[in-house]
Amino acid sequence: MKTMETLFAKHDRLIARTSMDIVREMMNRVHWDVRLLSIQGAKGVGKSTLLKQFVKMNYQLGDRKVLYCSADTIDFSRRTLVDLAGAFVMNGGERLIIDEIHKYEGWSREIKEIYDLYPELKVIISGSSLLSLLAGDADLSRRCIKYTMSGLSFREALRFYENLEFPVWTLEDILMRPYELWQTVATQCKPVEQFKKYLQYGYYPFFLEGKLDYYTRIEQVVNYVVETELPLICKVDVAYTRKLKALISIISESVPYEVNANRLAAAIEIGRDTVVGYLKNMGDAKLLNLLYSDKKSIGKLTKPDKVYLENTNLLYALSPTSVEIGTARETFAITHLTEKHTVEYGKDKGDFKVDARYRFEIGGKDKGFNQIADLPDSYVFADDIESPVGAKLPLWMLGFLY
């Protein structure tokens, strides 16, 4: 079939050109042999690369038992996913990988049909956004194993850019054995120096493709999410995309503060409830991290207590003026903590409450314990210190959580 030949030809070109320079550890965490799995994550973190690397590592070039394709290409303008799966299976196909799945209207119904029709076929789906996967109109939650992919942690950045190998540390181990972590890292590099680099560069794997246009590419990621994904998936009015960019700009310029939704609404001239909705949309899209004082009581119109850009590289790319270092420190902390932990706004008892147990203050080397004095399980994570001093720990250590 000519269309299948065209798809396989594209597959061969894409796999042949796929670099193996950065292979994320996620490759070994995914259970690739389940019947249906999804790889989710923000645009730019390397999902497509991971899928193509999986093919390159496990199949010979020209093997027709596997097919990688993207649902946003012209190949799908006149054929359905179900048709593709049928033709693929009929010709001996065993593993179908469909990227950019959210670009295909009605994808969830067809993936369900494929799952039911071809029990011998393994299917992997992935998209450029956290906004829609498994939120379609067919219930895939019982059938699909979901994985979420983040950008590079500080630990991973040291591995890929400095060739330094370190294991993941749990939060409990960092708190209980910080001197051991410090000795392990400090014998191989200057962690404070590397940390300052990481705040500005390296969260997105495409940093390897060049530092000069790194921030330009980050801006392109933001524009894509705001101008394409939010209107497509969340039905945001295209006329409001300029206001969303204005909202992001305001957040990038601000020191983290208790959110005043009415003030934000007035600044960009839209309704208060609309602002709250947009903040949640951008939180789902991994452009923002939203912090609440009580996650259990979050409602549809509940405003977040604090708002951060999702990672520090976004902050440095989008801030029109010099970045407030306090904002960068807190952004770094919440990016890494939220990967595996529940993080809430600490109000007047520390910056963050973690797993409803720990209280963390984030700051510079002179940061004290004033706000968390006499509280159990309380710690200061400080920048510009290399080694721990009692319950005052180096901020860079949080970069080893994943």
Question: What's the layout of helices and strands?
Answer:
Blueprint: H1 2-16, H2 26-29, E1 36-41, H3 47-58, E2 66-70, H4 81-90, E3 95-99, H5 107-117, E4 122-126, E5 145-149, H6 154-162, H7 171-176, H8 178-186, H9 191-200, H10 214-233, H11 241-253, H12 261-268, H13 272-284, E6 288-291, E7 306-309, H14 312-318, H15 325-337, E8 343-345, E9 352-354, E10 358-363, E11 378-382, E12 392-394
Helix pairs in contact: 4-5, 10-14, 12-13
Structure in a nutshell:
The chain is α/β, with parallel strands linked by helices and 402 residues long. The protein has helices spanning 2-16, 26-29, 47-58, 81-90, 107-117, 154-162, 171-176, 178-186, 191-200, 214-233, 241-253, 261-268, 272-284, 312-318, 325-337; strands at residues 36-41, 66-70, 95-99, 122-126, 145-149, 288-291, 306-309, 343-345, 352-354, 358-363, 378-382, 392-394.
Fold and architecture overview:
α4 (81-90) packs parallel to α5 (107-117), α10 crosses α14 and α12 (261-268) crosses α13 (272-284). It contains 15 helices and twelve strands. The two termini are 45 Å apart. The protein has 402 residues and is of the alpha/beta class. The chain folds into two domains: 2-149, P-loop containing nucleotide triphosphate hydrolases (Rossmann fold, 3-Layer(aba) Sandwich); 155-400, no CATH class. The strands form three sheets. Strands 2-3-4-1-5 form a five-stranded parallel sheet. It has a five-stranded mixed sheet with strand order 8-9-10-11-12, with helices on one face. The mean pLDDT is 92. Helices cover 40% and strands 13% of the residues.
